Amino acid sequence: MDNVMISLLISVFALLVSFYAFYLVNEKNKKKSVAESDAYNSRPLQLQAYERLVMLADRIAIHNLVSRASQQQGLDARQMRMLLLDSIKQEFEYNTTQQIYVSPMAWEAVKNLKDQNMLIINQVGTTLPPEASGMDLNKRLLEFMMSSKKATLHEVVLEALNFEARKLMR
């Protein structure tokens, strides 16, 4: 083989390596831009999920549940307790898909709020006599919430959700 042939082979090899390197860099940039655009496109969905979870936390707050349920006249304490618990379950089930878009800590906080409120309703409900009215239960729940430090979980959850949503907006 003469020098011209060796130079030609080296040139072809260098050209192939250059094309391969260019292809790899181009593919890497494509993947990076797709990932960035996916993150950008999911941000509105994440913000919407935080909005919905803030609304959920507000709707399952005991004072708001009692306010909405007190419009139901003539219920005894057991029926009112079931109405309050069903309201929490329905609100929560309606929003379960939002966990896809929020942090695990945010979702866990919402679940804890739901569980705590259901526990409070059940515990307060069991302290009432069998003949108690739904209004008696509502009154006792509101008294408990005003006198208990457990009532602050609702506010803590709202603060956490707002904090995470603000982080996304930066």
Outline the structure in words.
It is a single chain. With 170 residues, this protein is mostly helical. It has one domain (43-169). The protein is 81% helix and 0% strand. It has 6 helices and no strands. The chain has helices spanning 3-59, 62-69, 77-94, 104-126, 134-147, 152-169. Helix 3 (77-94) packs antiparallel against helix 4, helix 3 packs across helix 5 (134-147) and helix 4 packs antiparallel against helix 6 (152-169). The longest helix is centred in the N-terminal third of the chain and has 57 residues, at 3-59. The protein starts with a helix and ends with a helix. 21% of the residues are buried. The model has no long low-confidence stretch (mean pLDDT 85).
Summarize it.
By secondary structure, the chain is an all-alpha fold. It has helices at 3-59, 62-69, 77-94, 104-126, 134-147, 152-169.
Task: Describe the protein's topology.
Elements: H1 3-59, H2 62-69, H3 77-94, H4 104-126, H5 134-147, H6 152-169
Helix pairs in contact: 1-6, 3-4, 3-5, 4-5, 4-6
Key features?
170 residues, mainly alpha
Count of separate structural domains: 1
Percent range for helical residues? over 70%
Q: Oligomeric form of this entry? A: single chain
> Could you tell me how far the N terminus lies from the C terminus, measured between alpha carbons in angstroms?
64 Å
Radius of gyration using CA atoms only = 29 Å
Look at the helices and sheets and give the structural class.
mainly alpha
How would you sum up the global shape?
A: rod-shaped
Number of strands: 0
In sequence order, what are the helices and strands, one letter per element?
Answer: HHHHHH
| Percent in strands | under 5%
Low-confidence stretches: none
